[in-house]
Amino acid sequence: MSKMKDFGGGRDIISDLPDALIGHILSFLPTIEAVATTVLAKRWKPLLSFVHSLDFDDSLCLHPAKTNEEKRTNATSFMRFVDGVLALQGNARIYKFRLNGKHIINERWVLDWIQNVLKRDVSDIRLYVSSCSDGFDSSFYHLPPEIFVSQTLVTLIIMFEGDINISVEREVSLPKLKTLHLYHFKIKLSTFNKLISGCHALEELMMINWKWDESSEPEPCFVTIYLPSLKILEYCRFERYDEANDKVSLLFHNPKVVYLEFFDSIADRYQRVSFDSLVEARLGIRLTYDQVHDHLETEYYVSSKEKSNVTNLLTGICNVKILYLSDETLEVFGCCRDTIPVFNNLIELTIQTKPHIIWKPLPAMLNNCPNLVTLIFEGMHHIYSDRCEDEDGCLCRYPTNFVGGVVARPCLSSSPVKVLKILNFGEICDVHEDDVDDEDDEDEEFVYCLREQIEHVEYFIEKMPNLEQVILCYYTSNDEDVMKVFKKLENLPRVASTNCKIQLISDNLSLSCNVSD
């Protein structure tokens, strides 16, 4: 039996455990707490070399600082702490290295740390560096070349807000890499294709806010993502990264991808888009300033080339079952509504609405979703335009005497949707100047928006014959407003469904009722 040590009547059983087991236990603690145990006794000091998982977080290490000088001193102290821990461990094997640094003042130190852990056969690297204030342009920094030939890396997640370069001099070989997340990187298209070609086991790829380096690149420039093992793909480049996209052609051929998140401006060409196993997709495509050929009051016009590009992208994801469309995507779809493909497998559609975005593409979208079960609106923002007068130009209740006092909407009367859900119901939108008097305050603006949103919901209930459930998520603590909305919906004079349950959920209440034909 192991000898028990007695300290003031207590038994120190842990100190008698094997070194490797104590190191394993300490690996579950933040590294600053694991290091603190070394002051317990001489017995504990060398145990740090057995800690195989390092987790550094400068928010746990730094004292509150008021001046810039104090912040810089704190940051320097933290980086020296990381240096000291790595030095104490020597060449001991490490499995995981995680760094959350909000106040890193020199990213070159971070790149040195990466080299250190790569030499020790690390399998999991996760770096989140949100600022760099050393006065140097970090775009001159490059990831160490050793990172692209690691035979042990399984997970690599790096977020640098300073736009680090990726440069590959030799062939990439990452045979065990399954998860790759890279944020804020600058890379040549040819280098990216080389990088992807060396990741044969990759299952999850996230590319967030990359800059394409077009220097010395041939035209056209192709980005090829062909990974037979890939299951999750997130390709998100936001507006400040649009400048090079008009020369980029994308090729996606990923037969096993089940989740896709794609936010980008329209590429020069979608050479091929194929996602045969897609289950869920979030789509956010937008027009750049140069791609907008004619900006009318509420609509955009795009060229036939861009229209064809959007159609090719949609055709490649038309097997999807769950789809999210951003408000910018609605804007683009408005230019391509006559070429939207059929989504036979789609059962859930979420639509983000924002002020000044018209609903022109929604009728075509609903008509091309023959098996849609759940329709979700993220907000109920709507702006009237001349398109609202056409029966296939909108989903709103346009106040014109065509049929039954309003415009007929065949896409609603033939809709298979059973569940209608409205998120952010009652959210304030912009109001037209003619709709309110100059002295009207914010409360009256809210009343106007709420009344319009209630009318939209009433119209859906009146026209959609297969509705079984309507859910309104009304995030307010004003119970009186909630009750007024509920009573109005509860007493609808006309509904299309034989039996529909209406549920109104607020901060304090959850109300429901059944309405029927």
TrEMBL record:
Q: Which CDD domains match?
A: F-box_AtFBL13-like
Which InterPro entries does its entry note? F-box-like_dom_sf, F-box_AtFBL13-like, F-box_dom, FBD, FBL60-like, LRR_dom_sf, LRR_FXL15/At3g58940/PEG3-like
> What are the FBD domain coordinates in residue numbering?
410-505
State the source organism's domain of life: Eukaryota
Alphabetized Pfam families for the sequence: F-box, LRR_At5g56370
Segment forming the signal sequence: none
Q: What is this protein called?
A: FBD domain-containing protein
Q: Which species does the entry assign this protein to? A: Arabidopsis thaliana (Mouse-ear cress)
